[in-house]
Amino acid sequence: MSNDAIEPTFADRARELQALADVLLPGDGHFPPASAVGAHGLLSERLRERLGGDAVNSVVVALETAAGTSLAALDGEGRIAAVRRFAENQPEVFAAVRSTLYFSYYQAPLVVEAVRALGIAYNDAPQPHGYLMDPFDPTPGKDAPSLPRGSYIPTAAVTRLPTLPPARRATQSER
Length: 175
Description:
By secondary structure, this protein is mainly alpha-helical. It contains seven helices and no strands. The protein starts with 9 loop residues before the first helix and ends in a 5-residue tail after the last helix.
């Protein structure tokens, strides 16, 4: 934003993040939209943690630059086009925003319930119990390689080299 532009208010910034969240995770008949579960609020908190104190304002400015106006003021197709431009103009920032938003969304209790309602064993906090797994029984050619590679040296049998080999010889096996 230029210096003579009016700074967006806190409510304006929240609406911008809400619009962004709903473009990326609009919801459907089964899943709620991102803003309905408050993912945009978590997004702003986590952006501050990951990218610094001015991150939210920087993202809002980038969105408004890509949109040519407020993202929230655009219709659905306009918002999608603006978010695409944001992704093209600032791919690293967009990637951080998108991954942060996805993590924020899929931890929301209503989204966890929606995933589980699909019959998926979704553990929103996999520690300390983890996920149930079938017992592992290695079957050669199926679960284990049919031509094993590499070797094993027991720790007690490892010896120190008296001198290091020349770099060219040391890296020959890597070619």
